Amino acid sequence: MKQNYLQDLFSLSGKAALVTGGGRGIGQVIARELARAGADIAIFSRSGAAETVNLIESEGGKAIDIIADVTDEASVKAGIDKIVETYGKLDIVINNAGVCYHKDAFEASVAEWRECLDINLTGEYIVCREGARVMIEKGTQGSMINIASISGHIVNIPQRQAAYNASKAGVIHMTKSLAIEWADKGIRVNAVSPGYVATPMSIDPDFVEPELLAAWDPLFPLHRMAKPEELCGAIIWLCSESAGYTTGADIIIDGAYGVI
Ligand code: NDP
Fold it and tell me: Residue ranges per domain, the chain?
């Protein structure tokens, strides 16, 4: 039996990875797991990611905290320049930053609709585009993973969230489109669509009403939400060279929520 076979198969050693929205929630766990797999990490957020950087450094990894708003082209370009200045390149992009509002179509303002589309869809587009620009310049065989959602496939109930659902459906098709656009450049672009994951966005009473949590509970085929860690095996695989023939895919990790 070959020693270190699995390590070699999934190693991210020597890779530089950007995780947007890595200051908390799913992004924090992805950043930590990519670092454990060997990648050097950069995090974009609006309010800072010191806790994530400390976590990674305490385990012997490398991480930098960059204040960048994914909706702002100049801020994204400056953030990516900082990554190249620090690590010399960019190999992996995890487009994870996102927001969700629970408001029906009449209750939500057009400004809220635009903000949701702007962060969840346009933000991922800007980060993909600026990330790909640097990968192409440096001849990097890069991997991008856009965090979509089961909400891009089905309409969640009972909450009303048309803007969120539309933004995530857009992420899935944008992913396929960019996979084709950059196939010749050696850049793979895939999506991951989680079901409900236990993070502040889905369990914190500041974000989610208790009645909603009670309404969701009987809908989970596995009788629980996912833990963020349960997304990371697939994400590490997509980042690694063993996924070299996987591009334009959307991996649903929803505990069969979308099947019924
Ligand atoms: P959280 O609300 O816990 O974290 C979102 C992160 O995104 C924060 O770090 C936030 O940092 C960052 N962010 C938001 N807006 C911007 C912006 N304009 N620029 C840069 N960073 C930004 O969310 P989750 O961890 O729960 O979700 C992460 C992703 O997973 C999202 O795309 C979400 O839609 C998706 N998802 C989540 C599910 C769930 O059940 N939790 C299910 C399916 C998909 P800051 O505010 O400091 O900028």
Answer: 2-254
Residue 144 CB burial class (10 angstroms; 0-12, 13-18, ≥19): buried
Check if 164 is active-site: yes
Each residue of 149-203: pLDDT tens digit? Answer: 999 999 999 999 999 999 999 999 999 999 999 999 999 999 999 999 999 878 8
Measured in Å, residue 8 CA sits from the centre of ligand 1 at: 31
- Classified by CATH at the fold level, domain 2-254 comes out as Rossmann fold (3.40.50)
Active site residue 185: no
Annotated catalytic residue within 15, 167, 168, 240:
168
Q: What is the pLDDT of residues 85-130, one digit of tens each?
A: 999 999 999 999 999 989 999 999 999 999 999 999 999 999 999 9
**Non-local CB neighbours of 130 within 8 Å, separated by 6+ positions:** 73, 76, 77, 80
